[in-house]
Prior knowledge:
Blueprint: H1 20-29, H2 33-45, E1 53-57, H3 63-72, E2 77-81, H4 85-91, E3 98-99
Parallel strand pairs: 1-2, 2-3
Amino acid sequence: MADSGNVTQFNMVDAQADPRYLITFLDAGSTVEGIQRVKRESPTQLDLEIGHWVLEVGCGTGEDVRNLAHIVGSQGHAVGVDVSGALVAVSGTGGGGWTV
């Protein structure tokens, strides 16, 4: 990934000339084994089960909230919120037990 942006600007994603750099950074980070391990272990640490409701604050591209929705199933609900309209726009429209 070419360095064409500032990865410290997640509090101002929508003010960036091209927020795709930060989105690409998030996607690339998801491929790091240490981050993948934390994402696999987090639901256990949170003691999430079918039927639970979960809120992810700062959901970014929505990848994690979609995975959490799978864990809580159709009896539960997963909601993701983010201050960035650009990130919410790439997160999808919800459905399948999750909302952004």
